[in-house]
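Hello forum,

I keep getting stuck at the same step: I have a sequence, I want structure tokens, and every attempt I make locally crashes halfway through. Rather than fight my setup again tonight, could one of you with a working pipeline run this one for me? It's a single chain of 336 residues.
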Amino acid sequence: MQVTISIITQNRVRSLSRLLNSLENAYYMGDNISIIFNMDSQVDEPTLKLVTTFNWAHGTKTIRKRVLRGGLIKSVSESWYPSSNHDFGLLLEDDIEVSPYYYLWIKYALLTYHYDPKASFPELSSISLYTPRVIEVLRERPFWNPTEFFDDADRNMPYLHQLPCSWGAVFFPKHWREFNAYINLRSDRNSTGDQVEIPRSVTNGWKRSWKKFFIEMMYLRGYVSLYPNFPNQTSFSTNHMEPGVHIQAKNNAVNEKRKDYVVPLMGRDFRELLPHGKLPIVSSLPCLNLYNELASLKDMKIAGSNLGQDVLRCNNGKEIVVVDTEIGLPLKCATF
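Reply #2:
Ran it on my machine without issues. Output:
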């Protein structure tokens, strides 16, 4: 098992410095962790200097800088590609900060839900460090609190959600290859006006978001992410809501949104907060669809199949696309 940290940065050197400090202060148990810096062509001088002089004591450091501007979609989707089926990518934009316990959460979750021979879970595509406070795919963006949503018996129970996290998450190698193939094929379809329209989702209108395409893939093929669930949405990462591509600093809008998105960082051994002091078996995890509604994995596959807008045309309601897991390209339609 190898976790590769991939940082997307441009011209927020103070933010990047805060992120790097939090990464340096985390617990790694002696594991080797590679780090990659990805910078677009218009990166500023202070950021370049920080990245160049930064000393990473836990593994190799790689620096990538574009010659021609790529934009956020390319900057993220091309920031990491797995070197093997045991290489997992932690994607972090520079306004993220992580908890000292973030890597322990990642490793514990991977060992429990991916490497345990008893846990066959091909639908799990990523592990989030962050717990959201709003339902971002609905136009109203209502507030949501998992510790209140689930029954008392499920308090602090991690949950599965048909939504990728862009504010700190580890992506699985097979699914990231699949995503790369999907976004390439979808880009070709976009040029012909053939688009995916997910019911009720504002993501249909997102123009500069890599996450839009990952959401589409998850919806069409029934994939989920694992999310932490602790009081007050205490998480292993937080976003500081600083101005960038998706956040505009107009009329103090950033400050007004902070309370909706900035969450406390986990500052203690989280295992004692878990049900019975450990991660529960996968079959006991509550599962939410894209709209934060309780649903089974089969229900989600049926919904994606019924939409009938994947890159291959399958039998609606009965089949979904399956891929070559080594390269991510679609192979055929298969029943589920």
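The chain has one domain: 2-335. If your local run keeps crashing, start a new thread with the error log.
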